[in-house]
Task: inverse folding
């Protein structure tokens, strides 16, 4: 996660889109939903939006033994130029 005093910028996170988190919970108390829980077999996943575009960018994986790991959302295919420009524009508007 980004430090609370650091501005969110689209360039700080990967351009791969994860799940929509806008109906989730507000994990950083800024008034905007930015995280959703999901499961992957026995693991609990927390998808978190780091750049305020409403899509998960990072995954916190919590295993059944309590072990954790942080992953970046995987790209199924490279983002299009339109997707990149739209993401950049949302970050600055």
Result:
């Amino acid at each position: 996660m980004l430090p609370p005093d650091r501005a969110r910028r689209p360039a700080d996170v990967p351009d791969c889109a994860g799940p929509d988190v806008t109906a989730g919970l507000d994990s950083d108390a800024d008034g905007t939903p930015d995280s959703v829980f999901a499961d992957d077999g026995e693991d609990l996943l927390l998808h978190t939006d780091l750049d305020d575009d409403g899509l998960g960018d990072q995954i916190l994986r919590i295993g059944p033994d309590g072990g954790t790991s942080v992953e970046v959302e995987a790209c199924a295919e490279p983002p299009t130029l339109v997707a990149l420009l739209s993401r950049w524009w949302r970050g600055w508007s």
Q: What stands out?
A: The longest strand covers residues 35-40. The first helix runs from residue 81 to 92.
